[in-house]
Amino acid sequence: MKLRRTKHEGWYEIMSAxxxxxxxxxxxxxxxxxxxxxxRAVSDDFFDSTIGRQYRHYLDPxxxxxxxxxxxxxxxxDKKPDFHLNRVYRALTKELPxxxxxxxxxxxxxxxxxxxxxxxxxxTMPGPERYKVxxxxxxxxxxxxxxxxxPGFFCNEGAYGPYWTMGGAQGLMIPFRxxxxxxTGWQIRVDKPLLKLDxxxxxxxxxxxxxxxxxxxxxxxxxxxxIQDKTLEVILTEKDKKECxxxxxxxxxxxxxxxxxxxxxxxxxxxxxxxxIGGPLPIHLALPFPxxxxxxxxxxxxxxxxxDEVWVTEGPIKADKAADAxxxxxxxxPGAGAFxxxxxxxxxxxxxxxxxxxxxxxxxxxxxxxxxEQCIEFFAKNTEMTLSLxxxxxxxxxxxxxLTDAGYIPxxxxxxx
Length: 417
Description:
Elements: E1 2-5, E2 11-14, E3 28-30, E4 35-38, E5 46-49, E6 52-58, E7 70-72, H1 82-93, H2 100-109, H3 114-119, E8 123-125, H4 130-141, E9 153-158, E10 161-166, E11 171-177, E12 183-190, E13 195-201, E14 204-211, E15 220-227, E16 230-237, E17 242-245, E18 251-259, E19 263-265, E20 284-286, E21 309-314, H5 316-326, E22 330-333, H6 343-349, E23 353-356, H7 366-382, E24 386-391, H8 400-405, E25 411-416
């Protein structure tokens, strides 16, 4: 298990797969490995932090992980304030292009207009020679020290000494805007997500390396599997599910190779002089794209559009699409459990009515349904805002963006008055 020290004594960020949710990043474990603060697996025991709601899970000490512990050296620096991040990130937008490949994705797959794409400042994270982009950003902002504390940038050691460059996988870059139109962070929709193993039952495994795709272009990987007392190496093909049943027909195990997370924060918290995206985690305020031409940096948008009613969904692109379709301000949050990050921004906007537009499977996904219940309880205790839930049949589209693309508007039902 790979861990990284945090500012909280006795707590470590889990850099490998979390022992509770199986995902990488953001979850934490205590020194004794008996308590996990998980960001994804919902529980009744929780607390709110600057990176969203964290759920406590208590591990059985006798069943604690027996894997070797590796402690990473934390060489990062604290994240700078929003105004500083905005100055550097605005300079970055002048140095990065949006490739035709990503523009076509936004135009054809996301049904966005060319004007909307341009005004929303989407960009492409390039491949090699990123140090050249960092160098140009430095020339725009004035000094290389301005990149300290800006997530995504970090120092690398070269033959002629340290130099600034940028982290992250290649892909579409999506900006997060504060309520004052400051760009405070980015997510990358990676072009080629890392592969992962989805396993159930009496099997353990790990990916050793990705190999050449098959004749149909499906990705493949060499994997080491442990089944009872046997260890073997096999080549698995993407989305080709393998299942095993006993002679009596009882399920034993299943395994499938599949793409991992598509969306990742642009961050550099594991690099020299880099910075983590958290503390606090950004949330994104999307306005209908014509408003962006009038929205001055440093000003809240109430003079351009009513903020009495604000919608909330998951993810920045969904928020951008919903804002255009509904002609409403829409917050895009990193996940259903990150609702506590909304409270202060909503108060500052003078919001009176919040409409949550999570995906249509919200009522059939226990974790999301529990997060929604906790969200209602949280707002009931901390504000007098009215809460509503946007609902629609999943056959019309899973997300609010799919629904509006199909020409529909969701029904709105009040859940807290």
